[in-house]
Design goal:
- Helices cover 74% and strands 3% of the residues.
- With 296 residues, it is mainly α.
- It has a two-stranded antiparallel sheet.
- A hairpin with a 2-residue loop joins β1 and β2.
Length: 296
Amino acid sequence: MSAVKPVNQKAWWLILPVIVCVAFSAILPLMTVVNYSVQDIISPDRRVFVGTEWFAKVMRDDDLHAALGRQIVFSLAVLAVQVPLGIALALSMPAKGWKASAVLVVVALSLLIPWNVVGTIWQIFARADIGLLGAALQKLGFDYSYTGNATHAWVTVLVMDIWHWTPLVALLCYAGLRSIPDAYYQAARIDGASKFAVFRYIQLPKLRGVLMIAVLLRFMDSFMIYTEPFVLTGGGPGNATTFLSQYLTQKAVGQFDLGPAAAFSLIYFLIILLLCFILYNWMQRVGTNDAEGEAR
């Protein structure tokens, strides 16, 4: 009988710094939020345990329900526009040469701009008096005002997010396209396949994994959007662009309701986890069904 080789456990020491950093940056703050969510903090030295009272209060909040509805509609609109647009942009980008490098740099420029600067840029860009977009729409006869019209404000925030983050989807799709072996394209040319057939049966199936990452990243980012609409519209007019993150900030900072804000933070966290889980499993199921259909 051959002796069983002992397992080398020294590798755990290599990831110990990561575990410590995660503990301080994620786990400890999360435990603090959990602690606040079950207490009524009357003063720094006086706290009363209230159990699930704050959770029940938050779940009955009509403003929360409205913010959640706006958030879901916004995130779905972001995915519906950015994913097809990112794929189209990636397909139109050159594959080789100096042009490919130049286009990659240009496409990635918006990703390098800080979030608060993006909000400031669009705040100026959409002004009717000095902004190029606002002034152009006014001259064309549109009574555009992102500060006075709820629909205009919502659409402006959506277009701003599309401009800022569609390049991320495009770059991910571009990397996926470049990883497809040339043998697939050569076989398609021999069979006389059209461009649409190449996209439908070669490129799109090979992009499935990349698209799953892109969809999950953009869904999570859009569901946590805060800085850009806060700088651009401040959540207004009214509550038209007050998303969940801004609602949470108003609770915690504006009203200083630490208990309800902590309870809502945990609910917010669970909502994101649940929706990402549902979205991931749905995409996995769609991909499995397509693969089985192709196999038949």
